[in-house]
Amino acid sequence: DMKVTQMPRYLIKRMGENVLLECGQDMSHETMYWYRQDPGLGLQLIYISYDVDSNSEGDIPKGYRVSRKKREHFSLILDSAKTNQTSVYFCASSSTEISGNTLYFGEGSRLIVV
Amino acid sequence: KTQVEQSPQSLVVRQGENCVLQCNYSVTPDNHLRWFKQDTGKGLVSLTVLVHENDKTSNGRYSATLDKDAKHSTLHITATLLDDTATYICVVGDRGSALGRLHFGAGTQLIVIP
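YS: structure for the whole thing
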């Protein structure tokens, strides 16, 4: 069906609480990404995963960790959330060869940390 | 430093009019360039991918050009519809594989009024 699904879509957490954002894809893509989008800025890469248990830091990994135990599933974890982690988080997936039209995004997870 | 600059930041047009969105970048190397449409509160949806020097693509009312010498791309929308109201995001990939990085512009917000 070529879809990237994110859960939850909306989340409000208190500062210091743990946050789990989940992402699934049904295209058997090797590569999955977590980005955050803030007003006036382009998407910023948090983590990239090249396959199961093959994860690399992106440009802004501090305060985040990830888990990929199955190819179709990629989780973003915030241990002890901070107010500056309030943002919209996007998951994406692609085949290894991405210059073609093979990059798909989820609908976003809107996190508010109070 | 932002490597992908989009202009204008926002644009209002009347339904039926044409519009042109600009993307200038400094990413090197520049393997490919994508345009995405992002409806409010939604994820990014790919409109087109440009790969080669002086590439031109067409997808219905959307057409795009790429000038790699000038590091510049344009997205043309003809006969705009109210549903074209969205943010349009330019993304430059520095490699054709997931081992490269995607560089995102902050987007142009297009509003189509009746």
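YS: worth flagging: Chain A is about 0% helix and 55% strand.
IM: good catch. Also The mean pLDDT of chain A is 94.
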